[in-house]
Amino acid sequence: MAKINDPRKIDSKNLLLNEDYELRLQLEEIREAITQVIQKAANEAIPLAKRGPKPKAWWNKELTKLRRDVSHSQRTYTQKREATSIQEAYLEKKDFLIARNVYARAIKEAKKKHWDEFLEKEDPKSIFKAMAYTKDLKVERIPPIQGDNLETTFSGKCKAFRKALFPPPPVTEPPNFASYQESYW
Asked: Which of 6, 65, 77, 175 could join 96 via S-S bond, C-beta 3.0 to 4.6 A?
């Protein structure tokens, strides 16, 4: 390789071969400064996500353990069912069904306990929230219908729709067989 005498070419060669230590340090400092500026701007401009209430407030660590046990027993049963005799697979299925029922019962109890604790609060907001949870949602989607008269009940609206959409068939006169002639084939 020919000797390079031009200082600009030497700097370029050193840069390409990663031999210019001072330049590398300067670039690292610039990179660090730019990163800090971007992070600072992001922290000031982007609000942190606020964690809301847990979607299943009744969930607890015991349920996590029971769920893991159910999954394990189901996997074991599936593997035994394919690899062993029917009797051994039946025992594994029995274990799986017992674990599944214990898990389902624990979920029901946790929900009931959580609901009871929620209702025992003497906070006025919780009372109205409980009312909102238990109140039937009666959204009147179908407005009053004009039939023979103005129908507001659900059954009245149904009758009005049925009468409008399915009118009675037309009435025909009974056939007159007085002039009937029998055909001879």
From this structure: 77
